[in-house]
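Data availability (excerpt). The following record was deposited with the supplementary files.
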Amino acid sequence: MADQQLTWQGRAARWDRALFDVVARRHWPAAERVLPRLGKAANHGVLWGGTALAICAFGPAAARKAAVRGAASLALASATINTVGKWSVRRPRPLLEGVPPERWLPTQPRTTSFPSGHSASAFAFATGLALHAPAWGAAVAPLAASVAFSRVYTGVHYPSDVAAGAALGVAAGFAVRGIARRVEESRLVPGGEPVAAGAPALPDGAGLVVVANTGSGTAEAAGLDVLRAALPKAEIVECEGPDLPDQLAAAASRATVLGACGGDGTINAAATAALRASVPLAVFPAGTLNHFAQDLGLTGPADTCHAVATGRAVRVGVGRFTPGAGATAAPGAPRPEPRYFLNTFSIGAYPELLRHRLHWAPRIGSGPAAVLAAWRVLRSERPVRLRIGGRNRSVWLLFAGNGTYHGTGPMPRRRDSLDETILDVRLVHGGGRPGPRLLAAAFAGPLSRSPFHVATRMHRLRIDAIPPGTPLAYDGEYAPAPTSLVLDKLPGALTVYRNG
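Predicted structure:
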């Protein structure tokens, strides 16, 4: 049996070398100029990172999401290759006998040959992209195949190395899709929020006024057609930009139920209008980020339509931040009204990142702008000096969540319920550089004794001595902070429609 296995391995090795020699001997028109350069461009995933950035800059929302999944698949494949694959089978690189010298790479790789990391990265990115945006994946697939073939063409891998790497890359793409599905499914589970007694049922939509933010880019795709079919008497107002708050306030003043179609920023503005007019809110998620809708358990516009038609609603808590007594204001100006947050509030690194991204996005696209913003923030050396709860602090990030968020790190992403009466407050202390501090905090538990990261839960928090010009962020929106403010919680303040 052992002899038979050895014979089979020997035959496979001979076939592998024979195929390698066929590629080496054959002349491939124009390949000598293209393939070595293509393989070099794919070093360290640079080619695929650039492709992902280009898709994020110029592609539609669905393609941007697919590009992120492709990059995640590449990261998983690369980590698997470098930690397990390369050291499990210590196969020497092929001898360059028979490979024309003009094909040789300037510097030959020194790692083991099996499997091909370039092939794994190429097929992981292409698979991750194709599983979420098939047309974009089909466009990238020939490029991925060419990168994989270039590794045999230049003599640095056997064909079986490339085949194994490609298989690992495809597996990584499917693994990331599976993980993403489980995460999304876990988010779309209704919590135990109390039922809102007396929420009006609108079987045909009469009395529902929906303001759709056309600037979110996905309003139509997210379900305005579904809304019109399910609730034909609902009034739909389409607008964008600076007119949105006024349109929401006007809609709330005449509506039995106020609806909003957009992302987290739009829903935040709609919740503010609904709270001030004392009307229920119907959420139709249609933006880049829909964290509130996901934590509420809304899977799509059909769910919201059914809940409005049948009068099913719950009461949820709302976070509030109010300018403090010491906040500066222009002489004679009215005192600023409180603002609300359904998800998160923050001061420090994240608002700075958001500010840079909003500045650069109109010029270079949202994807490259996010990368540039992260680079600008992580190289900054200026933590924010604040007085928090009466104590002077230097912080890279102050985060407050509307209810308890689960998961590690300074800005976790999931809540089990939206009816809690507390704020989830987290701090990343200042000192050193922001990058190492934020990364260290990301690995700390939510209530750990990390020297970088502290967390607590409270009903109210006062923040004073905020430097003028300091930005804050709430539900993905950016604004200048007052010099003093108070964070607190309004339990059960908002009625929101939801099935279940």
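Summary of structural features: Residues 1-6, 439-449 have pLDDT under 50 and may be disordered.
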